[in-house]
Amino acid sequence: MRDRTPGDNRRTTGIRWPRIALVLILLVTAWIAGWTWWAEGHPSEERELRVFVHRQLTQLFPEAMSIESDAWYGLVERHPAAPDAKIRVLLVHGLDEPGSIWDDLLPALAETGLGVWELRYPNDQGIDRSSDYLAGLWPELPPDLPIALVGHSMGGLVIRDWLTNRYSRMPGSDGQQEAAILGAILVGTPNHGSEWARLRIWLELRDHVVGSPERRFSLLSALRDGVGEAKVDLRPDSDFLASLNARPWPAAVPIQLIGGRLIRPTAEMTRNLAGIGEDLGSEELTRRLTRWWTGLGSDLGDGVVTLESLRIPGVAEPILVEGSHRGMLLRYHRADPAPAAIAPILETLKRWTDDRGAR
């Protein structure tokens, strides 16, 4: 029998590693498929599990998990109010938002002299916890001018949950609160959920891998935002949405809904769907996702939120503009025209300001 040489060992090792890698990929894929299958059938239990994990991590690593250690969170004044300003605006971002969504709206608001603040919150935690966070920070806003809230995507649900379920219970909610509310503008808000939430496992992987340069890094920094509870809340017919939509909007608070409408799916969205199948090496998955996507038909909405999901019972129909979920607020290229949702936002703020002055 011939003795094994170092060259034989290298060849054996070279063959072994691709097999090991393939087995690992198959195991990870099987785990993801199994988790997704279980989560689809047990959404309430999934959310409870995620909340439990979040609490355990906070208890085990209180300093690393504390949002106090990350200066990105909290209320940030983006533009001071001009001396003759009549109102302020509070911007509330959505899920997995790196902070750029307001880059085109901010200068437009600043040109009008309005004071602008931004709420930055742990957006992957349960939406109810995010509305609690807003409630806790609200007294820190200057009380001298009424405030209009503008929420994009899930940010609109944070506003709705706070106003319908918590604001009325705050001390001084009989009109003596720190700052009066002018109204709320919800842009691209999935009031009845979004089917994209069913792909939340892939959104979570992206969220934990892609960070923001403004954020303080730690091994647990990606989990300070939460461990995916918000994506469960965003699922159509979730317990959270059922509870939220059972509560009427406060009649004394003006509200304006704004939504995007695509003529056809953008190239970026088509690439994203194809990329999921390519990452797993499954052409069948790509075909299934594409059929689901195109099956949305005329109710496609902005590509993330359907037209039907924009609506709130008892609230006027939304203003519809042409644009994608982010594109209606944010240019993709500097040379692009102003995002279509900015004009109706400014018009709504002016109308509410004039109406308040006339009273």
Structure description:
There is one protein chain. The protein is an alpha/beta fold and about 350 residues long. The chain has two domains: about 40-260 and about 300-359, Rossmann fold; about 265-300, no CATH class. Helices cover about 45% and strands about 10% of the residues. The chain contains 13 helices and seven strands. The protein has helices at about 5-40, 45-60, 60-65, 105-110, 125-135, 155-165, 200-210, 230-235, 240-245, 265-280, 285-295, 305-310, 340-359; strands at about 75-80, 90, 115-120, 145-150, 180-185, 255-260, 320. The chain has a seven-stranded mixed β-sheet, with helices on both faces. Helix 5 crosses helix 6. The model is unreliable at about 170-175 and about 200-220 (pLDDT under 50). It comes from Imhoffiella purpurea. This is AB hydrolase-1 domain-containing protein. Keywords: Membrane, Transmembrane, Transmembrane helix.
Q: How would you summarize what this structure contains?
A:
The protein is α/β, with parallel strands linked by helices and 359 residues long. The chain has helices at residues 6-41, 43-60, 62-65, 105-111, 127-137, 154-166, 200-209, 229-233, 239-245, 267-280, 283-294, 307-310, 342-358, and strands at residues 74-79, 88-92, 115-120, 147-152, 181-187, 255-261, 319-322.
Architecture blueprint of SSEs:
Blueprint: H1 6-41, H2 43-60, H3 62-65, E1 74-79, E2 88-92, H4 105-111, E3 115-120, H5 127-137, E4 147-152, H6 154-166, E5 181-187, H7 200-209, H8 229-233, H9 239-245, E6 255-261, H10 267-280, H11 283-294, H12 307-310, E7 319-322, H13 342-358
Helix pairs in contact: 5-6, 10-11
